[in-house]
Amino acid sequence: MTAAGPRAQDMTPVPSPCINVCRMNPATGWCDGCLRTIDEIANWSLLADAEKRAVWDAIDTRHAQLITRQR
Q: Residue 3: what pLDDT?
């Protein structure tokens, strides 16, 4: 938080990455739909917003890894 007030990002609820394609991939350990691990899925509602944003960052990295593997 700054003297000017909280950032808009800090006030916006962090949406769930779930897209209702719930199937764990044994090769990656990630959900085929949202690319989260089973622990990230199970703990989502308990995570603070900063932790949820960190999961989103991890999802971005995983997505990039999948794209690279497909090339």
A: 58
Alpha-carbon distances of 67 from 18, 19, 20, 49, 60, rounded to whole Å:
19, 19, 21, 27, 11
Q: What 3-state DSSP class applies to 47?
A: coil
- pTM value is 0.82
Report the C-alpha gap between 51 and 59 in whole angstroms.
12
Which residues fall within 8 angstroms of residue 2, CB to CB, at 6 or more apart? none
Residue with tokens 């000017």: 4
Along the chain (71 residues), what's the average pLDDT of each consecutive run of 10 residues? 58 94 97 98 98 98 94 85
Question: Which is it for the CA torsion 19, 59, 31, 47, positive or negative?
Answer: negative
* Cα–Cα distance, 5 to 18 (Å, whole number): 31
